[in-house]
Prior knowledge:
The protein has 283 residues and is an alpha+beta fold. The chain has helices spanning 103-109, 124-138, 145-162, 172-189, 196-202, 207-218, 222-240, 245-251, 257-268, 272-278; strands spanning 3-8, 18-26, 32-37, 41-48, 51-56, 62-67, 72-75, 80-85, 92-99, 118-119. It has two domains: 3-162, Jelly Rolls (Sandwich), CATH 2.60.120; 172-278, Homeodomain-like (Arc Repressor Mutant, subunit A). It is built from ten helices and ten strands. The strands form two sheets. The protein has a six-stranded antiparallel sheet with strand order 1-2-9-4-7-10, with helices on one face. The protein has a four-stranded antiparallel sheet with strand order 3-8-5-6, with no helix packed on it. β5 (51-56) and β6 (62-67) form a beta hairpin. α1 (103-109) crosses α6. The radius of gyration is 20 Å and the shape is globular. The two termini are 34 Å apart.
Amino acid sequence: MGEFSFSVFPNENFLDLRLYQYGWEQCAPLHSFGPFVRNHFLFHYVISGKGHLNSTDREGVTRQYDLGADEGFLICPGQINTYCADKNRPWKYVWLEFDGLRVAEYMDSAGMGFSQPIYLPQSAALGQQVRDTMLYIANHSEASTLHLIGHLCLFLDGFIQSSSTRRELHGGQLRDFYIQEAVTYMEHNYQREITVEEIADVCKLNRSYFSKLFKENMGCPPQEFLIRLRLSKATELMKTTANSIGDISTLCGYPNQLHFSRAFKKRYGVSPREWRLQNQPQN
């Protein structure tokens, strides 16, 4: 048996950025995990040793990647994966599982996703800064939720800045203004039926250009972002209120509860009722 540390984040009342679980493990030889599909983003940083990842891209093609110290791998929501420690030099890694409304955008900025799951730092020193921030989170499970979310922000910044596949973005100020206008509008109007045309009109942009701009910068189309926003608000209400699932469905822009349940299960892997039972506040 290998050594390990594992913690579950105690609070989910964060929408832009959430931490789910985190830890580190010194794996036993040939220790493997999978095939499995995650509901959230999961990143492993290899501290020492070796192993390999089998990862399936959006076209259903599975590729194997060999990894060693100071490299890492990203697993995206819905991605089939298996990873295994080397027989002679099994790896030790630290991991974080996280998600949120803007995480797809952050991963895109780092140049990582389904087709590019391997993290190679621009230098060993920059990679080790990412490693140390992850280990800090893994070793401070007793810290406050805001403290841990703050360090998750530091991890993401270091991850993006150090990634050798990082995308260089230009024309940022005007682009960011349009995106923020759209996000703010959705946050204020998600309870009712709104269309992409309506959001584009608020930003005074052509619909097709707006959709392209939004996807490039947020990592998903505006309609998908709106769905994520509504479902995130629903999880918040399920944890903090006694409202019925039907009432929460309506409050979050789903007058049809069946449509709400289908969208929720597609996003989180369980029904709203099951999610609520699994996430009851601990007394």
